[in-house]
Amino acid sequence: MKIINVYFPCYSGSSEYKIELGFLGNNILPDESVIVLGDMNFECDNNNAGFTQCSEVFSSAGIVCCDHLVRTNSECVTYCNTSLGQASLIDHIFVSRCIIDCVMNVDILDSGVNLSDHRPIAMDLLLRMSKHRGDQTPKSTSAQAKPLNWRWDKSDLCMYYEASREELSNITAPCEIVQCAYKCPKSMHLCNINQYYEDIVQALLVAANRSVVRIPTNSLKPYWNDYLDYLKPDSIFWYGMWLSAGRPASGTLFHIQRMCKAKCKHGIRQAMLQHERKI
Ligand SMILES: [Zn+2]
After folding, report:
1. Is the distance from CB of 256 to CB of 216 less than 8 angstroms?
2. Which of 100, 157, 222, 229: CA 20 to 30 A from 10?
3. What global pTM score does this model have?
4. pLDDT in tens, 47-58
5. How far is the CA of 196 from the centre of ligand 1 (A)?
6. How remote is the CA of residue 172 from the centroid of ligand 1, in Å?
7. By the 8 A CB rule, do 70 and 107 touch?
8. Where are the domains of the chain?
9. How many A from CA of 181 to the centre of ligand 1?
């Protein structure tokens, strides 16, 4: 599986644009599963020259757009500049036709803590993997090994739920112990209970390895502090209030959500600067 993150400038008909597109096309091998995603600065519309140029390259590489899979309750836009009054769907995910059926969901993420005028797109893919793929992973040496944390908060719990269902369903329960008398002395039964316990723990570990993100300790936002913990929910709360009020373009809610977002943005900048000074 190859993931290619792209940024396309606004299409101007330049030869550089075509050269870069050709370079992208050359990097996609036949029968390869590829995801191309990013800020493409075009809407997928046949009247858009940027799109027609790209779709020529993408089609010949067997890559299709996932815009039609976006789940949305409100605006289907990824670029939103309220000051300029502009909104459009210009960030996209394209995938190889052979994995389009693995795409479970595509969502545009909108949140009070998003400080950009672009909204990120998230995609859930359900890929079948080798059961013993862990055995094929080269083991890192102790010098390279970094402590890893399970990040349940960054993982798809539904994927874990499905993986744990699959793994647990492979375990055969020792039915004979159901009939055990109180304080059953049979050592074979005690062994079976222990084995049953080990199997369950192992199955849950395999399920977690398949679906839960593990990242090095402190690799996420090491500058984060308690003050930001206070600002972030505030910004999310007031953004939610503003959204539920139908995104008013003026008035008290509009100003509160703008102010909370600005305070959060400023707080994050200050925390990052302080962190950099310490390094
Ligand atoms: Zn027994």
Report:
1. no
2. 100
3. 0.52
4. 898 898 888 888
5. 14
6. 17
7. yes
8. 2-125, 150-214, 226-278
9. 6
